[in-house]
Design brief:
Alpha-Beta Plaits, Rossmann fold, 6-stranded mixed β-sheet
């Protein structure tokens, strides 16, 4: 596997405050790599080291090409137009293309209609999009995006996530986000920072697979239907536990995830009971993230459950 970014024992000492310690980061080329972790975990610090904005105390950094960085709160000279900001970024970075490519980048970032406007009057969301456009225009092989959707409304977030996915096909994108739901939509690989240390890295599939529980919550249409389903599932091969879940639901656990994925659909169909929903527990990135960090630090468990329940933050 070719790597776009590789660090060895990377660290920085802030004299008692949480820094970074022995970070061995591996970012595959041509992918979207998400960096996640609680507030204060060291995500922005790591980005600062990778982009040369801070100097490491220990360790090394190797990259396969130039890096361009978009901070979470990009700032631009207010008297410039959006077109001039992008052209300036491309020129300073000696990026490819010219005015036509600058306009194309603005269009991709949803700013085509504002190309001639001075950016001092831009909203926070438009400023965020312009920072992304200026970063893309550099032509850098590695794009480091710190919270690229933080100032956008839901429609804008969807547009930017689509763009990040597209960029990951021919460049390498290293992105951080507090929205785990957003990360799950775009990331191929994930790195988790906690208290300045890299606690886990690998594919999103591996992270979810390692943290899935072989348990499902199934909802039916009535209490009587739920009881019929409970009795049917109790006789189903591979089931290790089954119990009522509220007035119209059943909680069922299998010996392992693979058995449940294969056996539960057949068991539900064979039961003859109308099914409203069937949901695997902790089946998304939120659940996997909470589970992993709770293993590392049990004191975080309740707070993480509160912060990361139910999608984007």
């Amino acid at each position: 596997m070719s790597l776009a970014v590789r660090t060895e024992r990377l660290g920085i000492d802030f004299g008692g405050a949480v820094g970074l310690h022995d970070v061995d980061l591996r970012v595959p080329e041509g992918s979207v790599h998400a960096l996640i972790g609680p507030n204060g975990a060291g995500k922005t610090t790591l980005f600062s080291l990778l982009t040369g904005l801070a100097r490491a105390s220990t360790g090394t950094i190797a990259t396969s090409g130039r890096i361009a960085y978009c901070p979470d709160t990009p700032e631009h000279e207010p008297w410039l137009t959006a077109t001039e900001v992008v052209a300036q970024s491309r020129s300073l970075a000696r990026g490819p293309g010219g005015p036509a490519q600058d306009r194309e980048v603005l269009d991709r970032c949803g700013l085509g209609s504002a190309a001639g406007r001075r950016v001092g009057a831009f909203s926070r969301g438009m400023t965020q999009r312009l920072g992304l456009a200026a970063t893309i225009a550099t032509g850098a092989a590695v794009l480091v995006l710190d919270e690229p959707t933080s100032a956008l409304d839901p429609f804008g977030q969807a547009d930017v996530l689509d763009l990040v996915r597209e960029l990951g096909r021919d460049r390498t994108v290293l992105v951080s986000s507090h929205s785990l739901a957003a990360v799950e939509q775009v990331a191929d690989t994930v790195a988790i920072l906690h208290q300045g240390r890299l606690r886990w890295q690998g594919t999103l599939v591996d992270l979810l697979g390692s943290r899935l529980r072989p348990a499902w919550r199934v909802r039916t249409t009535s209490t009587a239907a739920a009881e019929r389903l409970r009795q049917a599932l109790a006789r189903s091969p591979g089931v290790t536990a089954v119990a009522p879940d509220g007035t119209v639901g059943v909680a069922v656990t299998y010996a392992d995830v693979d058995t449940g994925l294969l056996a539960l659909p057949a068991a539900l169909a064979a039961s003859g009971v109308p099914i409203v929903s069937s949901v695997m527990q902790a089946s998304d990135l939120d659940g996997a993230f909470v589970s992993l960090l709770a293993d590392l630090d049990p004191d975080l468990d309740s707070g993480l459950d509160d912060r990361h329940a139910g999608g984007a933050r």
